Batch of 3 targets.
Target 1
Amino acid sequence: MVAHDQSGTSTQLRASDQVAQIMDALYLQSGGGVELAAAGAPLSAIAERADRVAQWSRNPLGHIAIDARWIAPPEGVSARGWVQAIARAYRSTTGAHAEQPAAR
């Protein structure tokens, strides 16, 4: 969900656009603002919260539930910093800790 190269724009603007696109995609995938009781309140620890969002993003239909409250950047964290934290957690979930697809 990232736009192709747009000539005539700065690297910083392109990076900002990509962060916005990632945040929009996560928000829409999480239900677009619907609050789920099953998701519970977001964790306050940034790394743990990012890890849960990353695990969910690998399998949004699995057993991990999150909603828009989890997607919103934690207090004191920029959108860019939040996307970076989720990306770091996503990369670290590629091994044995990665969520397995739901059985069908």
Target 2
Amino acid sequence: MRRARRALAVTALAALGLTGTGVVAGPAAASADVLLPHPGPEGLVWVEERVGDGGVVTGGAWEELPTVLTVACEGGGSVRVTMESQQVEVSAFSVDCPAGAAGVGSVTMEAGVVRPGSFSVAVDASSESIRWALTVTQPE
């Protein structure tokens, strides 16, 4: 049942990305380096790569599992990351984005912090040239 819900959440995210209403960002930077690999079966969200400000809105979280939000970026500057669950901020942190290398920031929230259903992650980049990626996972 959990796997079916996760598949539904990933499908919803993909649909939002295709319509442009769920993922907001500029075009991807020209680079062959992957900032964050696909999170595998524990992944709720994978934003492979965006440039500048952006974020994601999706559903499919379970409150009985811990939630891990990871953001990687590069380009000389920083990103400010905020996560909301059911319209309540549950996490906020910054990641330094060095030029020519990836900076990574991650936060693990205990089970129950992220409520069942929808959540959002916003990325505020210090420059429109900052390249970033993010994952949200719920390890079992």
Target 3
Amino acid sequence: MTANSARKAYATPGGVKPLLLLAEIAATHPPAADEVAGRLEATARARVEGDCRFEAMTLLRALWELTRDGHRVAPALVDLVRICPPGGAPPTIVEAVELLAEVAAADPPAATAVAPRVRHLLDTDERPVRHDQWRAVLSDDALLAAVRTVVGAAQAAGA
């Protein structure tokens, strides 16, 4: 982690737990939802830029659950996909693309902008999943299914 990425990643005083609590409260108090959603989105993007993928994934899931606005969540999610590793500590690329597929299935117009950034995974000979474990085929199948969902949603929306 560079000094610049650390500065961006930890721009939220007190970490992300208070922000996640605010998101839960905002879900029951709609007037606060827009402000909290903005904070969730900005902090998630900072965590992606700072290479803190676990916190970014947690924040993006909270943003999705709060807003159900794919146009807010999908761009940051596809940036998260870019930094997720093929295996190891979560979230892996499979988990990030699966959340992207969930967003795309529920909000197909949001998939139109992000589908081109994951479509290449369908044609790649060696997809970015771990190959040194017995679950490699399952991970590869899950990644393919999630990408197909995103691409299919984009096609259904007219992209």
